[in-house]
Structures are given as C-alpha cells and as structure tokens.
Design goal:
Elements lengths: L1 H19 L5 E3 L12 E3 L3 H14 L3 E9 L2 E9 L5 E11 L2 E10 L8 H17 L1
Antiparallel strand pairs: 1-6, 2-6, 3-4, 4-5, 5-6
C-alpha cells in the first residue's frame, strides 16, 4: 500500500512539474510573454564598463563559461554557456549597447536539449543580472 501511495505522489509531482512551467526552452528579456518581469537591464555606466562587468560576472558564476565576445557598431555581444547540475547546457547571448545616455543589456538563454526547460533559462537570466547588478551598481 505504501508503495502505491509513493508511486501516486511521484506521478503527481512529475505532472505538477510538467505543467507548472511554460512549455518553452528559449527566453529573451523583454520578449518572452511567459516571463514579463524579465526586462532588459539598463545601466548608467559606459558600454565598455558594463561589458567588463558581464565578463567578470560570468567568470564568478558557478557552471558558467564565457565562449566569446565581439564589438561592432551595434554594441558588444558575448556568448556564454551555462551547464546545469543535470549536465544540460544552455546557450546565453548577451547584447550590450549604448542608447539615450544609458547602457542596455539584452539577454537570451536557450536550452540546447529538450523543448521544456522547467524555468531554467529564466533562472539563468535572473542569476546573470543579479551578479551583474552587484558588479555595476
């Protein structure tokens, strides 16, 4: 009897986890309706200072790796990977540009595997902005 109850609880928990999160695996600040609270970052610091702060934040965050960066007329772009504890890899793109006296930071986090990320990409963005805010402000 106890095994049946445990099995039912396990199935109910899995069903809840499946339906609790949006069925997406790609989240971009300011563009993903499922996460309206995830907005682009806005900083008074220069584009170069914010870009350095993003690089420092990525270096300090566990399971994050900076893959590359570039600078052009549209601003700075950085590519990072974030590996989950389960071994899944998410690709994170950070775009930084100066606009109207502010430096804007747009972040996209996308899972390489699967069609549902169980909220991980939104957590990646929040984690990056928390570390960036601590470095810039």
């Amino acid at each position: 009897m106890a095994k049946k109850v445990l099995l039912l609880l396990l199935i109910a928990g899995a069903a809840w986890a499946f339906f609790a999160w949006p069925r997406i695996n790609d989240v971009t600040t300011g563009q993903t309706p499922a996460y309206p609270e995830l907005e682009d970052g806005s900083y008074a610091a220069s584009e170069d200072r914010v870009a350095r702060a993003v690089q420092d934040a990525i270096a300090d965050l566990p399971r994050w790796t900076l893959q590359g960066s570039g600078k052009g007329p549209g601003g700075v772009s950085l590519q990072a990977l974030r590996k989950t504890r389960m071994g899944f890899v998410d690709e994170v793109t950070i775009r930084i540009r100066r606009e109207g006296g502010r430096t804007l930071v747009k972040v996209r986090s996308r899972s390489r595997t699967g069609q549902i990320d169980f909220g991980q990409n939104a957590r990646n963005i929040r984690e990056l902005f928390a570390a960036l805010d601590a470095k810039v402000r």
